[in-house]
Amino acid sequence: MADDSVVVRAAHRASVLSTRVVHALRELAMASPPRFAVLVFSALVLLFTGLFSLPAAAADGTQTPFADALFTAVSTICVTGLSTVDMAEHWSPFGHVIVYVGVNVGALGVLTLASILGLVISKRLGLRAKLIAAGDTNPLRAHGGPVNEGQTVRLGEVGQLLATVALSTLVIEAGLAILLYPSLLINGVDPLSALWEAPFYAAMAFTNTGFTPNAGGLAPFAGDYFFLTVIMAGVFLGSIGFPVIFTLWRHHFHLRRWSLHAKLTLITTVILFFAGAAVFLLLEYDNPKTLGGMDAWDTTFQAFFLSAMTRSGGFSLVDISQLNGSSLIVGSMLMFVGGGSASTAGGIKVTTLAVLALAVWSEAKGRPSVQAFGRRIPSDVQRVALSVVAWGSTIVAVATITIGQITGAPIEKVLFDVISGFATVGLSTGLTATLPDPAVYVLALTMFMGRVGTVTLAAAVAATSRSQHYSLPVERPIVG
Fold first, then answer.
1. Which domain holds residue 40?
2. Rounded CA gap, 396 and 338, in Å?
3. Which residue ranges traverse the bilayer (predicted)?
4. For residue 237, is it within any domain?
5. Number of structural domains, the chain?
6. How far is the CA of 390 from the CAs of 10, 386, 393, 455, in angstroms?
7. Which residues of the chain have pLDDT under 50?
């Protein structure tokens, strides 16, 4: 009887403890969704670090060093694509399955994942959680303030948005895998291996990660333009963001019904895609180590492919370390901008660039407000855009200086790999694979901060948003 009493008391204590934990998580999810998102993302990184540390995850059956396991976990969950080990050779089939699952989990995004888990824990999607979920289309939602409803998904549509995230990921990756499968067979991959490689490549394209399951990477498919075009299409769909996919699904080609966010995202993405290709073509057409050794058609196509991949795709057909210094700078600029908000891409986001460009144009024209497509962009959105650029630049600068000091490597290569990590791109000059452990940890932290997002990170740190019911006297400092 005494033993039964002990068991009952132990079960009761465990029940009380679990109830308290669930209650604490519920309170955190409802009170501070951004902070809850960071907590969830950190937990995922720790979980996958443990999985990658298992001997079964390595091809040789030995335990992977902690620094490599942690870096791979961060790169996988953050859908970055950088690696300190040979991804195709180092990991076992079990390890590759972990990578596949990890990138799909990471692709859901910090805010979307936090909203879904918050819904599960609280049994309902509260107003604050809805605001944060709507913040996938407009990060300002995390801070409050006046917001034009045309710029974001309405609160009643958040449930549909979350469903669209999961459904679009499944449908798009399945469609890409179906298209890629015949090309794999044509290029000599056996049918059974192709059944695994097709969905793997599809996931790496849509999530903008860039890992490849085979040792040669994309080299065996360098002349298969259909295969490469499908990869680019997957990267594009992943980089425009779930809110844009939601808008296109709802309104198709009815341009007048598109949100301002969707218009700015698509227009800026297309402009950067063609401008980047033109610049790479101009800078590399006479470089025999990259594009110079190809005919005119191959050179043009590879320039477009490189432009698409520097936007966050991470796949590469040319040796990045052989690019001219000017091309590395251009690539760094494209990577820093990244893709669309609430997308699998990283960077400061194309809408941030668009808002700042419109602000500069409006100031040059002497307009009292920033306008686009018959809509006025409020000043608080512009302030958030400036904050994102400032935080992003600071993170990149600090990481570049730190890693440069640790390694003594050429600063242009350090800058390229750091921006690639911050913007979760995955392209590398070869530096990442040679980093010592202290630099590995710095770059892993940079990837984490880049994927979590500067706005989300700032919102998570801030305890509450304070309203000010008075204004101070105006005085204008000299600027410029």
1. 19-460
2. 14
3. 36-54, 97-121, 161-181, 225-249, 261-283, 333-361, 381-402, 439-463
4. yes
5. 1
6. 52, 6, 5, 11
7. 121-123, 135-153, 155, 462-465
